[in-house]
Amino acid sequence: MSAEPPNAEFNACEENGHVNEQAADASAVAESALTLPRAVSSLPLSGETVALTGTLASMTHRDAISMVEQYGGRATHSVSGSTTMLVIGEEGWPLEDDGGASQKLQQVMQMIADGLEVRILAESDWLQLLGLDDHREEIRRAYTPAMLSRLLDVPVRMIRRWARLGLIKPVRRIGRLPYFDYREVASARRLASLLEQGVSAQTLEKSLAELSLTIAGTDRSLAQLSLLVQDEKVLMRDDRGILNPRTGQRLLDFDAAEMSLEVFQPGLSDSTECDAEGDDQLEDDEPVSLPFSSGQIREERQMSDWNAEEWFHEGCRLTEEAEFESAINSFRNGLSLLASEMSSIRSGMSSPDDEQTTLFPDPADLNFHLADALYRAGRIDAAIERYYCAIEAAPDFIEAWTQLGCLQSEQGQLELAETSLITAISIHPANPDALLHYAQLLEQTDRADEAVSYWKQYLQYDSRGPWSDHARNRIAKSEKTDSVML
To answer: Model pTM?
Structure first.
């Protein structure tokens, strides 16, 4: 593989993810559309004076300005009386660094209140107006955690944490591989960033309420905001009692109070699981009411009493906080308890219908996360062994096969790496992560001609990530070589 690629799986290279370009808007001198008639033209933006706000998901502001002019409109740097259209970028929300709604949006909303005709379009609706369905589909496409990591410059571990918290929900699963809505993840990233910078939750809530007047989907972001603010404090009730979704730990029940908070129920594992019938489509989680006591919440159970599931979530928490050796010990405790609990069932000491069995984590998930912690701790051989254990427990574990191939390649075990990556592709041929790494492996082994086919397949599913230009260059180079030979 290339010397310093933005790795699709591992934290060591996650920081090299794509950073969205923030090209400056270009100003265009325009006469007032209030006094001059609009030109008659078949171009969809003919006579329109267009302003842009927020970060665009499909292109840079510079490219969008060119697009406006190409389709008959005039782009402006700021909002004025001549503005007839405001396009809102869909990578996160149009929020300023102080948490307020963008100045351009506020100005346009005031203009509308004053009776002026100004259209506000979400980026995807603007692309549809221009007939750019390919661009529109790109920002509406679902992405794997690794793809999102590259596109949004967010570590994979953070995306998995958000999924465990319920901030984001998979729109579908293929095998054990989750796919997430790009815009929902971008929204979570923006809200989390603003909170970390010290913006108050009250300010963000007010801004989202303002945005809801013109933009659909802000209700989901309000739910995300609630979970981000609460984080450690959020508790939720499910059919097994009280759960802290941040750590996955079970708490003693407490009396319901007058206050309740509506949030979405997160899953108990940050790895993917197929349902009992093998349906790849995940049904939407229902919101649950979380009663909070006005008094003190009872103490969490002692660690000596934790079950395997609690140790599993503790390991996930410690991994997120880069406490890798402690995380490894937590995962090993979970595996030990899991083996003990399963042994008791096999020996007849406990019933398989016992409620305790519902608290068992998936052994494949435990081994997968243990392997990840071992890798981050620099223990690559041990990590490889644990990925094998995860695959033995779940042969369709696509992410485990892919990461195993990456580690084997890193260790110079190229034939084994090829077998692992080909297996991942055979399970899910449309998996861009495996296609990317296999194309890299082919180039590393001087099989660039074979790699072209996989670069082409990769571009079908990830045409805007940081590796997409590399893929196009490789394809173009191959085609140029072929034409010269002819």
So the answer is: 0.67
CA distance 115 to 31: 20
- In the numeric block, which tokens belong to residue 165? 């918290």
- Domain check: are 134 and 182 in the same one? no
Domain end marker among 138, 168, 193: 138
Residue with tokens 């929902």: 184
Please check whether residues 185 and 246 belong to one and the same domain.
yes
Distance CA 418, CA 437 (A): 9
**Are residues 315 and 384 located together in one domain of the fold?**
yes
Number of domains observed in the structure of the chain = 4
Model pLDDT for residues 262-309, shown as the tens digit of each residue = 333 333 233 333 333 333 433 444 333 333 333 333 345 678 778 888
- The residue out of 394, 413, 448 marking a domain boundary is 394
Q: What are the Cα distances from residue 447, in Å, to 1, 439, 442, 472?
A: 12, 9, 5, 17
Q: Locate all alpha helices (DSSP H) within 262-307, ordered by sequence.
A: none
Closest of 273, 392, 377 to residue 330, by C-alpha: 377
Full residue range of the structural domain in which residue 77 is found: 11-138
The helix/strand count (H/E) of the chain reads as: 19, 12
SS3 449: helix
Tell me the C-alpha to C-alpha distance, in Å, between residue 98 and each of 53, 55, 79.
15, 16, 20
Sign of CA dihedral 150, 96, 88, 193: positive
